[in-house]
């Protein structure tokens, strides 16, 4: 039976349209860093190499190698951690050219360093990519976080963040940093902006 993250991990990936507290345990990711406007081709290229690696692992049994502990699963959604350059933080309005990001795709727990190396070898052979060697495989633990489902264009996210920030006040919490995580549940190429679904999340800690 295929593992479906939309069904098995609803608490992390299918939140409600209201702020909620969630504990995010350790997760394994392919990740790559970048800077600049996500509407530019460079961002799409970085997304592409992440998916190449993710599917290289997903398809390993069909290509003659089955990792120990492997199970059928749906590839996890693209995620991104977003920040601004120092210059960008000084501006009154968002300049997307000043964005700094780490985009990533989560991997199942059975993925080991050996499996990762096999995935890199597969991509090098079948689909060489200029950004491949920039990709890292790391374990991340966000811990206590506040999240909320945002429905609509990315440019309207500040309205959702206002609700999340107000929730912090009621819970005696504060943000750990100015960065935030986005999890993209919709295919931006196929879904109109008004219907895009994005999980917005940031780490928090007790105030004081």
Automatic annotation (TrEMBL):
InterPro entries: GyrI-like, GyrI-like_CCH_Lin2189-like, Reg_factor_effector_dom_sf. It holds the Pfam family GyrI-like. Residues 18-200 form the GyrI-like small molecule binding domain. Transmembrane segments: none annotated. Gene3D superfamilies: Regulatory factor, effector binding domain. This is GyrI-like small molecule binding domain-containing protein. The lineage of its organism: Bacteria, Bacillati, Bacillota, Bacilli, Bacillales.
């Amino acid at each position: 039976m295929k593992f479906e993250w939309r069904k098995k991990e609803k608490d992390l990936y299918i939140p409600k349209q209201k702020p909620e507290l969630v504990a995010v345990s350790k997760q394994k990711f392919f990740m790559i860093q970048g800077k600049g406007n996500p509407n530019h081709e460079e961002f799409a290229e970085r997304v592409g190499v992440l998916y190449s690696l993710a599917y290289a692992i997903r398809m390993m049994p069909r290509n003659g190698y089955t990792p120990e502990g492997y199970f059928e699963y749906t590839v996890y959604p693209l995620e991104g951690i977003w920040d601004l350059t120092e210059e960008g933080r000084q501006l009154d309005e968002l300049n997307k050219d000043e964005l700094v990001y780490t985009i990533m795709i989560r991997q199942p727990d059975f993925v080991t360093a050996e499996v990762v190396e096999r995935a890199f070898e597969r991509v090098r052979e079948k689909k060489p990519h200029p950004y491949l060697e920039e990709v890292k495989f790391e374990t991340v633990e966000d811990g206590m976080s506040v999240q909320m489902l945002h429905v609509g264009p990315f440019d309207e996210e500040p309205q959702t963040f206002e609700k999340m920030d107000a929730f912090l006040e009621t819970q005696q919490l504060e943000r750990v940093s100015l960065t935030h995580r986005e999890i993209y549940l919709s295919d931006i190429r196929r879904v109109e902006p008004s219907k895009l679904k994005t999980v917005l999340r940031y780490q928090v800690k007790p105030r004081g």
